[in-house]
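Posting for a labmate who doesn't have an account.
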Amino acid sequence: MSGVTDPRAFGRVAVVMGGSSAEREVSLTSGRAVLAALKARGVDAHAIDGIPALLDALRAGHFARVFNILHGAGGENGELQGALDSLGVPYTGSGVLGSALSLDKVRSKLVWRALGLPTPDFEAVRRGGDVHAAAGRVGLPVVVKPVWEGSSVGVSRVFHDDDLDAAAALAERSPGDMLVERMVEGEELTVSILGRRVLPSIRIVPKGEYYDYHAKYVAEDTQYLCPGLEDAAEAELAELSLRAFDALGCEGWGRVDVMRDHEGRFWLLEVNTAPGMTSHSLVPKAAGVAGIDFQQLCWTILEQTLEGDA
């Protein structure tokens, strides 16, 4: 980190949010929180809704750098990162490769599998493909989800073959293929990464049976236990999470989602390269336990964009 203390060092900052993905509303909420935090620290930060408006403003020379808080397609799949690279504009988070690999759940799992990192068995199913055959090979119960979505959009947990068609129909509301993944029953954990620092894990205990969209963004009774584990298990999870993050070429900051089964084994699910920054979000919770308040968290993420400056 550069250790910058003067907000003028950042120049004019675009906080890009919203966009057109299924996660638009969550992104707007995250973006407003980030914008307010940066402004409170004296940063000349401004909200921009979506990629086309951002690129127009950048080509006109209005901004020096970008804080990317677009969730989902566009903001997390390498498209925005490629455009910003071509314009020579520094931005927060992972580059083209890390973003594209992480948003594609199938390809991220293929990389992990090739490196011997633990991830649940799975099959990719093309749109209109035979989800029953895939589930039969993976073995029920399974999780059916879109390959390119986050925030639990389009996700179904399926215990019976009769429910697979409805799960596939829900997943196919999103673009791209679907993933049929062996369901791991146990503890749901998430690990936030800030630079090269692994923050304390969070164990998520929803009031209902699962940590779905409602539990993430609406419910007030979801429990977040941080750190989620103790001693050797916490250290093992931290090491695995950083290895998974690095394996996909991720940079800057992000969040690794993991399941721990009843035998204590960890299973990697996915990496988020522009995680939520809402009042319910997990990265700010973990940062807070590590002694980093929300304003400092946003500042530290933005500070990473200065590392390549002369």
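Reply:
Got it, the structure tokens are right above this. The mean pLDDT is 91.
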